[in-house]
Amino acid sequence: MQILGYFKGKSIGVAGLGYVGRHLADFLNTYSAEFQYSLSTFTRSNIEDVKGKEFDYFFNCAGNTGDFRQKMWETIESNLFLTKYLLENIKIKEAYIALSSTRLYGFSDKKDILFEENEIDSNPKSHLSIDFVYDGTKKLLESILWNLGGKVRHKIIICRLSNLYGKYTKSDLNDSTFFKLMLRSKIEDRPLKVEQNVLSTKGYIFVEDAILGIIHSAVYAAKNNVYNICSGESYSIGDWMRYFKIDYTLGNEINSPSYSRNSIKKAAAELFFHPKTFLTNVSWSELFEAN
């Protein structure tokens, strides 16, 4: 964890203590005494406490990622209004790190398509789709931050995360994502009805790899930039079903398969980011924390 030596004597802020924010804050708190940096965390209940404060590094982890379909206005608020509030009320010396998503690339009907940071799918989903509430909000967030980059003295870094998994607690398994639903089916030893094409693939990243990727972006990015923080691998629902050994049945109407695979060449070259955990080597104890 020598990378945390870059934070010695620094002040760090983390906003949003959901799945990602909680793991990031816990990780940073574990090593704060050893590497001598200060850590402040903020949630909806104490967000006004950030007013007038100065941070060397600030990580905004809020975003209503898993349940955006049920919480449309909260998604817009946490991505856009909170960003505006933070950037107007805090001072940043080194870097502001925002979390976005590789979902904004969309999906392809071809397996060999590799999405990179400077490419956006030429056939984006209609803005009338419910998915655009999340995808569109993230795109607008990125546009605002990208164009602010040249007007402030600190770096603005955008981390596009793929689907995160691992280190779930019992309270995390709220069925807000299909992955959590699969995991709960395994724990409860019950079959699962699948309404999606089991051949469709998505990018995934183990939560501890994602946390390190986010930290690497804060330390190593030389200027305002955007990075894919994902494993570089893409797995299907069928892959995970076989891994979990879950019995399942298929719904009546299954769409054609779609694919999403994201490049990490840029993050590897510029951030020295090399994920370590994949479907092929993740253990059950890493997926679920019984306590």
Shape: globular
CATH C-level class:
Alpha Beta
Structural class: alpha/beta
* Helical run tally: 8
Mean pLDDT: 89
Question: Remind me, CATH topology?
Answer: Rossmann fold
Distance between the termini: 25 Å
Helix content: 25-40%
Total number of domains:
1
Q: Would you kindly provide a written description of the structure presented here, covering whatever features stand out?
A:
This protein is of the alpha/beta class and 291 residues long. The chain has helices at residues 19-35, 72-89, 131-148, 178-188, 207-220, 237-244, 265-271, 284-287, and strands at residues 11-15, 38-42, 54-60, 91-101, 155-161, 163-165, 192-194, 201-206, 225-229, 234-236, 248-250. It has a single domain, classed as 3-Layer(aba) Sandwich (Rossmann fold). The protein is 33% helix and 20% strand. β4, α3 (131-148) and β5 form a beta-alpha-beta unit. The model is unreliable at 120-124 (pLDDT under 50).
Sum this structure up briefly.
The protein has helices spanning 19-35, 72-89, 131-148, 178-188, 207-220, 237-244, 265-271, 284-287; strands at 11-15, 38-42, 54-60, 91-101, 155-161, 163-165, 192-194, 201-206, 225-229, 234-236, 248-250.
Task: Give the key terms.
291 residues; alpha/beta; Rossmann fold; six-stranded parallel beta sheet; three-stranded mixed beta sheet; 8 helices; 11 strands; 33% helix; 20% strand; globular
Topology (elements, then pairings):
Blueprint: E1 11-15, H1 19-35, E2 38-42, E3 54-60, H2 72-89, E4 91-101, H3 131-148, E5 155-161, E6 163-165, H4 178-188, E7 192-194, E8 201-206, H5 207-220, E9 225-229, E10 234-236, H6 237-244, E11 248-250, H7 265-271, H8 284-287
Parallel strand pairs: 1-2, 1-3, 3-4, 4-5, 5-9, 6-8, 7-11
Antiparallel strand pairs: 8-10
Helix pairs in contact: 1-5, 2-3
